[in-house]
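I am writing to request your help with a piece of structural work I have in hand. I set the record out below, with my sincere thanks for your time.
___
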Amino acid sequence: MFKITLIAATLIAASAASFGQTTATPAPAKPVTAPAAAPAAAPVAATTPANPATAAAPAAKATDAAPAVKKSNNDICHDESSPGYKATKNFKPFATIDECIKSGGRAPKTPDSKAKK
């Protein structure tokens, strides 16, 4: 047991001595440079598209996201004034309520139509 301890102590001392002899090499210093100048501001006319139709194109895509009429999986046609329009998540989009009804849908039941029966 004493022999193993003596060997371990010798190895520890040898590794500590070799560790203490290594020196860290400092990283080479980078030359200091002036910051790059900011690019000149472009005139406003240059950033505005020449064709007004291209400027309106992103707005048209935003309106495509919300169709005028939604036909639900239950074949109910909801327009934007319908109470179920916002709640309808799975639907087929239509441009008009007439197109939706012609495709096999029906108008939503309103409180007035329920009272008439």
Q: What stands out?
A: The two ends are 102 Å apart (CA to CA). The first strand starts at residue 69 and ends at 72.
